[in-house]
Design goal:
This protein has eleven helices and ten strands. The chain has one domain: Histone deacetylase domain (Arginase, Chain A), CATH 3.40.800. It starts with a strand and ends in a 6-residue tail after the last helix. The strands form two sheets. An eight-stranded parallel beta sheet has the order 2-1-5-10-9-6-7-8, sandwiched between helices. The chain has a two-stranded antiparallel ribbon with strand order 3-4. Bound molecules: zinc ion. The site of zinc ion has 7 residues, from loops.
Length: about 350
């Protein structure tokens, strides 16, 4: 069992301008965490550039052209929040390509699981619109590649970034092959993410939103996994689990209003690993989305990585409260409605 990380100094080259929260130093925080790493050996993977075709698998041609047109320009404002610098186009291709590279390694079982620490993030980018600090949708590109190159038919994307991943939701909204699950602050940017948005047509039911009021912490997130997310994922039986791992639901984050700690990220990771172990031989890929406090990024990414590296727990340890409660509900069903 091996865990791989993908990060590269070139992810600093996208500069959205002074005082922007999605800043190059976020990559330094990850590099500092890896420099101090004392856990199990992890494999370091280098990114490649995504091809035009890989971007066009999830985006309309005018979006690719619009991002390409920013190349070499010191500053372009795509919208009020989303700004580019001279090398943003190349960096965004390297972010998507890095995620695809690591997705390939996990899909081929060259490594067990991995974490792609890339920027710019991706989950707000829709098929036709870069927005919300996001240029290309990295997680969506990975899901499409897993289908096209590896023949997978059921892919789960679980998004715990504090913001709803409107782009990922929209790209797969009528698609039963990609189950999108999001936990997010609501109402909040970008305004989407209602619990009643379930998907469309054949995709109905394959879009699950958990809209939280501000202030929810580890316990609320753990309950959502226990009561809703893990049961849904187990029924879906994904062949690959992608995590849109934003750390802006951390209590220190300057943009988010949630109270999640490092322990909360550990618990969510353990839950997803347990699903992945049971349904797809542990194949899981985490992708960095948001998260704007450097200490929170450092501590939370370390916590998630430590869980990814942990050897499979003994069976008795896996029979946690969720499993016990399911058993109890069955045993008590003739007598009590639970
Ligand atoms: Zn976010």
């Amino acid at each position: 069992m091996r865990t791989a990380v993908l990060v590269d100094p070139r992810y600093r080259d996208h500069d959205p301008g002074p005082h922007h929260p999605e800043r190059p130093e976020r990559i330094d925080a990850v590099e500092a965490m890896l420099h101090d790493w004392r856990g199990a050996p992890i494999e370091r993977v280098r990114p490649r550039l995504a091809s035009e075709g890989e971007i066009l698998a999830v985006h309309a041609a005018p979006l690719l052209e619009a991002v390409r047109a920013t190349e070499g320009k010191a500053h372009v404002a795509i919208d009020a929040d989303t700004h580019t610098s001279a090398r943003s186009y190349e960096t965004a291709l390297l972010a998507a390509g890095g995620v695809l590279e690591l997705a390939d390694l996990v899909a081929r079982r060259d490594v067990q699981n991995g974490f792609a620490f890339v920027r710019p993030p991706g989950h707000h980018a829709t098929r036709a619109q870069s927005m919300g600090f996001c240029l290309f949708n990295n997680a969506a590109a990975a899901a499409e590649r897993l289908r096209a190159e590896h023949g997978l038919e059921r892919i789960a994307i679980v998004d715990w970034d504090v913001h709803h991943g409107n782009g990922t939701e929209a790209i797969f909204y009528d698609d039963p092959g990609v189950l999108y699950v999001s936990l997010h602050q609501y109402p909040f940017y970008p305004g989407t993410g209602a619990a009643t948005d379930l998907g469309r047509g054949a995709g109905t039911g394959f879009n699950v939103n958990v809209p939280f009021s501000a202030g929810v912490g580890d316990l609320g997130y753990a309950l959502a996994f226990q009561e809703v997310i893990e049961p849904v994922l187990r029924q879906f039986a994904p062949q690959f689990v992608i995590v849109s791992a934003g750390f802006d639901c951390h209590h220190r984050d300057p943009l988010g209003g949630m109270e999640v700690t490092e322990e909360g990220f550990r618990a969510m990771t353990r839950s997803l690993l347990s699903v992945a172990r049971d349904s797809c031989e542990g194949r899981l890929l985490a992708i960095l989305e948001g998260g704007y406090d450097l200490d929170a990024i450092r501590g939370s990414s370390r916590a998630v990585l430590e869980e990814l590296c942990r050897p499979d727990p003994p069976v008795e340890e896996m029979l946690g409260p969720a499993h016990l409660f399911e058993q109890l509900k069955g045993i008590l069903a003739p007598h009590w409605r639970l």
